[in-house]
Write a structure and sequence with these properties.
The chain is mainly α. The protein has 18 helices and no strands. Helix 4 packs antiparallel against helix 5 and helix 11 (189-211) packs antiparallel against helix 12 (214-235). It binds protoporphyrin IX containing FE (HEM) and N'-Formylkynurenine. Protoporphyrin IX containing FE (HEM) binds next to helix 4, helix 15 and helix 16. It comes from Gallaecimonas xiamenensis 3-C-1.
């Protein structure tokens, strides 16, 4: 590091003149200052600053994930930064409580001045969605329309270009697909696993038959058939491809099998970091979804069934987006395919050795 030659001063370093001079209240401009508009502006600005930090972490993670040979040190950095990402998410989810100290009536003191601005013009929020892997085809019709009609030309062009770039979900798929986990010479892992799965489903069926009768029995057995079919897709590529085409899954078949393998044998030393990576991504999705739900509840409290300043139906629109805009759905699907540890095929010593560390020597 080069020696510091000029005295660094707190407010210059943080450019506080710009930061603290950027709270211009619309209500004041209109000659009717509304006390709570300051809270509204500061809360949104704090969100945008944290979005900036989240994007900083995400871009750096994606620069590392894009490497065709990802070594364990890079993986450790990725996991560390994604962990930080989730801690920030928890913090900003809690910020909603602060804004909720504004009463719905006090909001009305300045709300009309904001039309037609709205949160869906937050480019950083959309950028996070897109980079993480939210596809345009997945968005609700209304979300898709507003995306194009409510943004200015520069923002729209920026986000459209971003949609053409690689996403974290694509990178995850490529990384999982190239892991050499599925090829063990002389060890038919998936054959063993398939038998284990069969035994588990047969045992589930026996329990259902013992416990239920009549219509309940029929509907429980139907549900179980659905689960059997989902297992079938794991072993039958054309079935799997059909689910992909229908949009029920988005991870490629190889990637799904690797992710499953990591989850099944997450105690193996070599899988510690890959397992943490998959877990962090699920947590990111959960925390995003939790924010969306909190936001919907706040919107209901503030607006009842009024339409939004941006022209959407308000809380109904946001509730629909909450379920549509899930990010790593397939990682949750893995839980369908988990078997208890005792039912798993025992890995041959040769494979176990490859998956272990040998700090204590061989
Ligand atoms: C009084 C508090 C708030 C109310 C009543 C509110 C209301 C709304 C409404 C009604 C929408 C739908 C678009 C529209 O028609 O206007 C929306 C979208 C959105 N708001 Fe808020 N909002 C509030 C606070 C916040 C805060 C603090 C943030 C943080 C950045 C935020 C971020 C967003 C985002 C990102 C969207 C787009 C979501 C999507 O399209 O899926 N909102 N908000
Ligand atoms: N859409 C909100 C207004 C609102 O919350 C808002 C307005 C301008 C800039 C950001 C906003 N925050 C989130 O949507 C409403 O309909 O009341």
């Amino acid at each position: 590091m080069r020696k510091n030659t000029h005295a660094c001063y707190y407010s210059d370093y943080l450019q506080l003149d710009k930061l603290l001079g950027a709270q211009a209240m619309e209500s004041e401009k209109h000659g009717h200052p509304a006390h709570d508009e300051m809270l509204f502006i500061v809360t949104h600005q704090a969100y945008e600053l944290w979005f900036k930090q989240l994007l900083h972490e995400l871009r750096s993670v994606m620069a590392l994930m894009g490497d065709p040979v990802l070594d364990d040190r890079a993986l450790a950095t990725i996991v560390h930064r994604l962990k930080r990402f989730t801690v920030i998410q928890k913090l900003i989810n809690e910020q909603i409580s602060v804004l909720e100290t504004m009463s719905p009536q006090d909001f009305l003191e300045f709300r009309d001045y904001l039309v037609p601005a709205s949160g869906f013009q937050s480019v950083q929020f959309k950028e996070l969605e897109i980079r993480l892997g939210l596809r345009r085809s997945q968005r609700t019709e209304a979300d898709r329309q507003f995306f194009y009609s409510r943004l200015n030309e520069a923002d729209r062009t920026y986000l459209l270009a971003l949609e053409q770039q690689e996403t974290l979900t694509c990178q995850l798929d490529r990384w999982l697909s190239r892991l050499p986990l599925l090829k063990f010479e002389g060890f038919a892992f998936w054959e063993h696993y398939r038998r284990g799965a069969q035994d588990m489903l047969d045992s589930d069926e026996a329990i259902i038959r013992q416990t239920f009768e009549g219509d309940s029995l029929t509907s429980q057995l139907d549900e179980l058939d659905g689960t059997r079919a989902r297992f079938q897709a794991l072993f039958d590529d054309s079935h799997y491809q059909r689910l992909l085409a229908e949009g029920q899954l988005s991870l490629s078949h190889d990637a799904m099998m690797s992710a499953l393998f990591i989850n099944l044998y997450r105690d193996e030393p070599l899988f510690q970091l890959p397992f943490q990576l998959l877990t962090s991504l699920m947590e990111i999705d959960e925390l995003f979804t939790a924010w969306r739900y909190r936001h919907v509840l706040m919107v209901q409290r503030m607006l009842g069934s009024k339409i939004g300043t941006g022209g959407s139906s308000g809380s109904d629109y946001l509730r629909r987006n909450t379920e549509a805009n899930r990010l790593f759905r397939d990682l949750y699907a893995i839980s369908t395919y988990l078997l208890p540890k005792h039912a798993l095929p025992v890995l041959p010593d040769k494979v176990k050795k490859r998956l272990g560390f040998s700090l204590g020597g061989d």
